[in-house]
Write a structure and sequence with these properties.
Blueprint: H1 6-17, H2 20-54, E1 62-67, E2 85-86, H3 87-96, E3 100-108, E4 116-120, E5 123-132, E6 143-147, H4 152-156, E7 161-165, H5 166-172, E8 183-186, E9 189-198, E10 210-214, H6 215-221, E11 227-228, E12 230-235, H7 241-255, E13 266-270, H8 271-314, H9 316-324, H10 329-366, H11 381-407, H12 411-416
Parallel strand pairs: 5-10, 7-9
Antiparallel strand pairs: 1-12, 1-13, 2-11, 3-5, 3-12, 4-5, 4-8, 6-9, 7-10, 8-9
Length: 418
């Protein structure tokens, strides 16, 4: 096979090595182009990974539903009626909408985002206090520093236990003091601490200073009866959240006699919208990075073509001799194209190695920090393979320009040229 012809490669490297400085300058364009391409792709991948890290622990197919005030009079009810949910609403919705995977009712002490004073040995903390089911952890994962989260036994036995936030711990306990097993007081009721959590660096629906207690314990300790503040819901992976959201609103509007066109009576937040927008943004960013990188690479490959045109002109006599000795146009053309491929591929690999080195250094220095926007900013194997194939393909197309010029040289005219 001609590709493994030793004489062919000896001749190619001899030709490229005749003027090493010019060869190096020719390769610089492709080297810098590959560096730019890899840095752009690596940065966009790192940003995508950074978003995934920020939103880790939050179900992407989730939504939150709460009651507000009506904005339309309906069936004898005046505008401004406050909608207050009951725990039976959660059971009704779960029963009528099988696409719901997890439904976690929640109730909060005081008003929404209200602050309750929590006491311990003269220390106080203005905290948000929630009555929760363990299922809430499947929707917004708590990063436990110590201890455990609420479990089903806490619910069944209405245990007076709680999980506190790291900020709550700092306000109620001395640094290094053991909190697990210690009591705190909320509205005159004592609760034993069973866990300490650290807030996620994502959409924080709980706040940094929060206390979680079992929902059933909340009902008895604070006499909340069958009231429910709001619901955290996650749906099955292949189900659109907006469809389930509309079904929930339809059920609640029918039950609470809310005008069908009233958009304010039921508050909701679709978490999947944020994830979809982020996914679309990172996809467009990756596409734009690849687009810019490829055109930059094209500019570098064109520079190689221009240099090879000059080389062909300088080698006119040599090409004439080879043609006179029997070299076919196909052989001459093949050598010029292979020279273009070798230059481009070698320069591309150098640029790739340099860019990967920069990305690795950036990741080792800042990748593990919370403030750095990129996480593992590296190029994937498919991206590298596609980029390399496109680069070689461009070099073949561009190499045909000087190759076609070389085969148009007539042997007799080339031999006359001085």
């Amino acid at each position: 096979m001609w590709l493994f012809d030793r004489d062919l490669w000896v001749e190619i490297f001899h030709t490229l090595g005749q003027n090493l400085f010019r060869t190096f300058l020719t390769m610089l364009g492709v080297i810098f182009a590959m560096i730019i391409l890899v840095l752009l792709l690596g940065s966009s991948n790192g940003m995508s990974n950074g978003f995934n890290k920020v939103f880790a622990g939050t179900a992407s197919n989730s939504l939150f539903v709460w009651g507000q005030s009506t904005s339309e009079p309906y069936k004898g009810f005046e505008r401004g009626r406050r909608i207050r949910y009951k725990i039976e609403d959660a059971e009704l919705i779960k029963k009528q909408i099988p696409e719901i995977e997890v439904l976690a009712p929640r109730i909060e002490l005081g008003s929404h985002r209200g602050v309750v004073t929590v006491y311990r040995k003269g220390q106080t903390s203005g905290s948000s206090v929630y009555g929760d089911y363990p299922e809430i952890d499947n929707i917004t994962k708590k990063r436990l520093v110590e201890g455990r989260f609420l479990n089903q036994t806490d619910i069944d036995d209405s245990k007076k236990v709680c999980v506190i936030g790291e900020e709550t711990y700092k306000l109620l306990f001395e640094k290094g003091e053991k909190a697990i097993g210690q009591d705190i007081r909320i509205n005159g009721v004592f609760f034993s601490v069973v866990g300490i959590f650290k807030p996620n660096n994502n959409i924080n629906i709980d706040g940094e200073n929060a206390v979680f207690i079992p929902f059933t314990t909340f009902q008895k300790a604070f006499n909340s009866g069958d009231r429910m503040g709001w619901m955290a819901i996650s749906v099955e992976p292949n189900t659109k959240v907006v469809v389930v959201e509309n079904e929930i609103k339809e059920i609640l509007k029918k039950k609470y006699d809310i005008h069908p066109k009233d958009e304010r009576a039921i508050g909701s937040f679709d978490m999947s919208e944020i994830f979809n927008n982020i996914t679309a943004f990172t996809t467009v960013l990756k596409g734009f990075s690849f687009f810019v990188g490829i055109f930059t690479l094209l500019a570098g490959v064109i520079a190689i073509s221009n240099i090879l045109l000059i080389t062909v002109k300088e080698r006119t006599k040599e090409i004439g001799v080879r043609r006179a000795l029997g070299a076919t146009p196909k052989v001459v053309k093949r050598q010029i194209v292979v020279e273009a491929i070798v230059l481009t591929a070698f320069a591309g690999l150098i640029g790739f190695a340099i860019a990967v080195g920069f990305l690795a250094i950036a990741d080792s220095l800042w990748g593990s920090g919370d403030d750095f926007p990129f996480v593992k900013p590296m190029v994937s194997v498919p991206q590298f393979v596609i980029s390399f194939i496109l680069m070689v393909g461009l070099s073949v197309l561009i190499g045909l320009i000087p190759a076609n010029r070389a085969i148009r040289v007539r042997p007799i005219e080339a031999l006359r040229e001085e």
